[in-house]
């Protein structure tokens, strides 16, 4: 037996439990009846008689102060510049600052154990502006619903018929894309290998098919470029990606197994898709009504006012789409986390939805707003670049293009890292900023970054969503042709594609959420995965060791 001393974290009440990292792994500790937060308590654990040999690293070339033969993961509380490979080769001051952030994240993780009994509201102030945005969109949609029909009929009976046919074609495409998304999610449970391969080769085949269509239409040069690009991408899949595909299939198989145990997760994706589509329609109606009013008033010459209205409308639209997507994402993360730690599995989905819609909803609104703000900035810069190009200002075009690339990179980084941070929001109920600190601390000290480099999950999800969008576009185009010939085919295809991307992203996004949750929690405590899926645990270790020995 070994005696361990632990500090009761803030918010822990007598009789509740918190997790403590010990030589034997994470151990649940019950708070004594007379203990208060900040007080030290002692408990005993069984010291393993023959602990497994720590995984070691091979020779690291050019790693500066880092030496081989050490464990591949470091306790975040004991992190230093010389024992973290990912901090080698950067300026000392920057590395030391990162170590300080790692220690802050480790302290937060200790204070806020997984699945606390009491979850305070986090970032609650951000729910108010989002509620205001929802009210504005709903009011605008209701107001426009009375204005748009009259405006359409004023244009003529033929235009009114075309508008109703376009809506019907879009609805058909949206329904087909949602069915395709659900079918894709069910296929992932039955045949993970088929899903991975289909997702990876669909994009190249789409380029080749599009190139063939362009060549048939007389655009030989452009069609040849598309076909060459598709063939090159397909070669990359069978050469560069081939060694990563079995690893990806193994992960999709594990994630799909959890979805099979919790099939109602797919209902969450359907609701999220419907909310996203409804939000898009409401925003579209509000913008159309506003434009119709401006035309009637003949006041469209103020370019500054137009830019402001465009920015606000785009910000509200992207913000809502991001919120609905991240609510689904946090819900998925909660379910996978409970499967990982084998806690509250019977009520995993209900508890996860409740956390996403209540205590963590402010954090979801905050993180989604940051992404939306950056994307709006990117759109404004792109529009300014287009205006400069029309004016023939080459220098301004170059400067704005560089700025657009910079802002786009910031947006991509925010989107990518926020999905990892939301795992801690779902598990610990912390704020968005604290979740980011905890995530950075755990991922850096466990060298999970080397596993992420081999993941193809974003490609699988993105191309899977594109596949659903293609189905929606095809059905929408066919419905448009059937109702009014080829005139509405393009409109039906665009609406079906958009609906397909939304529904496909929500349904197939469960694979991304599951993968990120398992990896984030394995970075903190690998023992549960070693017991549940020893093959995956070993694969993770070997991939880290392989990268460190290069």
Oligomer kind: single chain
Strand ordering within the main sheet: 1-4
Can you write the helix and strand succession as a string?
A: EEEEHHHHHHHHHHHHHHHHH
Q: Roughly how much helix do the residues carry, as a percent range?
A: over 70%
Q: What is the overall number of helices?
A: 17
Give the strand tally: 4
Biggest sheet descriptor: 2 strands, antiparallel
Q: Any idea what the shape is?
A: globular
Radius of gyration: 26 Å
Strand residue content: under 5%
Q: Which whole number gives the mean pLDDT?
A: 80
**Uncertain stretches of 5 or more adjacent residues:** 48-70
Distance from N terminus to C terminus (CA atoms, Å) equals 40 Å
Any descriptors?
single chain, 550 residues, mainly alpha, two-stranded antiparallel sheet, two-stranded antiparallel ribbon, 17 helices, 4 strands, 4% strand, globular
Describe how the helices and strands are arranged.
Elements: E1 2-7, E2 17-22, E3 25-30, E4 40-45, H1 92-111, H2 127-155, H3 157-190, H4 192-216, H5 220-239, H6 245-261, H7 265-297, H8 303-341, H9 348-357, H10 361-391, H11 394-428, H12 432-446, H13 449-452, H14 457-484, H15 489-524, H16 527-532, H17 534-548
Antiparallel strand pairs: 1-4, 2-3
Helix pairs in contact: 1-12, 2-3, 2-7, 3-4, 3-6, 3-14, 3-15, 4-5, 4-6, 4-14, 6-15, 7-8, 7-15, 8-9, 8-10, 8-11, 8-15, 10-11, 11-12, 11-15, 14-15
């Amino acid at each position: 037996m070994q005696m361990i001393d632990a500090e009761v974290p803030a918010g822990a009440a007598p009789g509740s439990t918190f997790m403590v990292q010990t030589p034997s792994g994470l151990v649940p500790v019950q708070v004594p009846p007379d203990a208060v937060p900040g007080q030290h308590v002692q408990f005993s654990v069984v010291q393993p008689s023959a602990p497994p040999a720590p995984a070691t690293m091979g020779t690291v070339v050019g790693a500066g102060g880092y030496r081989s033969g050490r464990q591949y993961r470091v306790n975040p509380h004991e992190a230093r510049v010389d024992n973290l490979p990912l901090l080698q080769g950067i300026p000392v001051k920057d590395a030391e600052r990162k170590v300080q952030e790692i220690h802050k994240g480790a302290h937060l993780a200790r204070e806020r154990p997984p699945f606390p009994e009491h979850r305070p509201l986090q970032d609650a102030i951000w729910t108010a502006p989002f509620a205001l945005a929802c009210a504005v969109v709903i009011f605008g949609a209701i107001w426009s619903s009375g204005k748009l029909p009259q405006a359409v009929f004023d244009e003529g009976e033929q235009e009114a018929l075309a508008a109703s046919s376009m809506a019907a074609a879009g609805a058909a495409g949206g329904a087909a894309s949602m069915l395709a998304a659900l079918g894709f999610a069910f296929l992932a449970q039955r045949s993970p290998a088929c899903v991975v391969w289909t997702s990876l080769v669909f994009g190249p085949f789409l380029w080749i098919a599009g190139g063939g269509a362009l060549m048939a239409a007389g655009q030989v040069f452009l069609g040849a470029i598309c076909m060459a690009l598709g063939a090159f991408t397909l070669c990359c899949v069978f050469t560069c990606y081939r060694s990563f595909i079995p690893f990806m299939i193994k992960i999709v198989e594990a994630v799909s197994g959890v979805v099979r145990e919790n099939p109602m997760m797919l209902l969450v994706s359907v609701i999220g898709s419907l909310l996203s589509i409804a939000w898009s329609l409401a925003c579209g109606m509000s913008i159309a009504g506003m434009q119709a009013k401006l035309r009637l008033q003949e006041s469209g010459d103020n370019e500054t006012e137009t830019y402001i209205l465009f920015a606000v409308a785009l910000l509200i639209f992207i913000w809502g789409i991001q919120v609905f997507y991240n609510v689904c994402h946090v819900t998925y993360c909660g379910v996978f986390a409970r499967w990982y730690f084998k806690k509250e599995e019977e009520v995993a989905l209900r508890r996860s939805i409740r956390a996403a819609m209540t205590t963590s909803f402010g954090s979801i609104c905050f993180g989604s707003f940051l992404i939306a703000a950056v994307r709006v900035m990117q759109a404004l810069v792109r529009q300014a670049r287009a205006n400069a190009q029309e004016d023939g200002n080459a220098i301004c075009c170059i400067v704005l293009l560089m700025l657009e690339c910079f802002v786009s990179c910031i947006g991509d980084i925010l989107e990518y890292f926020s999905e990892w941070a939301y795992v801690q929001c779902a598990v610990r109920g912390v704020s968005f900023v604290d979740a980011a600190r905890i995530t950075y601390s755990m991922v850096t000290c466990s060298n999970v970054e080397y596993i992420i480099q081999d993941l193809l999950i974003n490609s699988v999800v993105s191309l899977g969503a594109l596949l659903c969008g293609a189905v929606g576009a095809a059905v929408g185009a066919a419905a448009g042709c059937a109702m009014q010939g080829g005139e509405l085919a393009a409109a039906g295809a665009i609406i079906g594609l958009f609906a397909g991307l939304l529904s496909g992203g929500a349904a197939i996004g469960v694979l991304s959420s599951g993968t990120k949750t398992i990896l984030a929690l394995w970075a903190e405590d690998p023992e549960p995965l070693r017991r549940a899926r020893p093959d995956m645990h070993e694969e993770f270790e070997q991939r880290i060791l392989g990268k460190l020995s290069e």
